[in-house]
Amino acid sequence: MAAHLVIRGATDQDVDVLARALLEAANWNGESRMTLEETPTSRYLTGWPRTGDVGVVAETSDGVSVGAAWFRFLPADDAGYGYVADDVPELSIGVLPGHRGEGAGTRLMEALIGRARGLRLRAISLSVEDGNRARQLYDRLGFQRVGRNGGSDTLLLELTPGP
User: Fold this and answer.
1) Does the pTM exceed 0.70?
2) E-assigned strands of the chain?
3) How is 53-74 classified by DSSP, letter by letter?
4) Are 90 and 75 in contact, with CB atoms under 8 Å apart?
5) Label partner for 22 (CA 20 to 30 A): which of 46, 49, 77, 133?
6) DSSP 8-state secondary structure symbol assigned to residue 30
7) Distance, CA of 159 to CA of 145 (rounded, Å)
8) pLDDT tens digits for the chain (163 residues)?
């Protein structure tokens, strides 16, 4: 079914889609552990998009958003869960229920990684909790464990700048 998805750049009109994706990422195991109000979204979404923010949205052919992936540069004094360094943006991704396991996450990640390479970024990072099936995707894409925080690993994807 992912073949019928359109991946497009995220705009300032997509804050709600990104917020829903972030909530799904926080509640990845099916438990409603957090609500939008409880999820620490400000560092990931406030002022979207600000300079340096890059994101992509997956939509069905009839325009229904099913997921999003984006990255944002975060400073050490407002570090996110996957913080590595000020010059390494932190990636967030979420696919809505009913659309998982169909390739949307892979397509979102590949599109976002392509954009990061196009910007000649040295790396991107993220955090993934133990047991999250998305870890298989991150491993397949080449992310490497560079840290540990509680029950989560911090992963880094080194990027080779293109020509």
Assistant:
1) yes
2) 6-9, 54-59, 65-72, 90-95, 123-129, 144-149, 152-158
3) -EEEEEE-TTS-EEEEEEEE--
4) no
5) 77
6) S
7) 15
8) 455 889 999 999 999 999 888 888 776 665 655 656 555 667 888 889 999 999 999 998 888 888 999 999 999 998 888 999 999 999 999 988 766 667 889 999 999 999 999 999 999 999 999 988 889 999 999 999 999 988 899 999 999 754 5
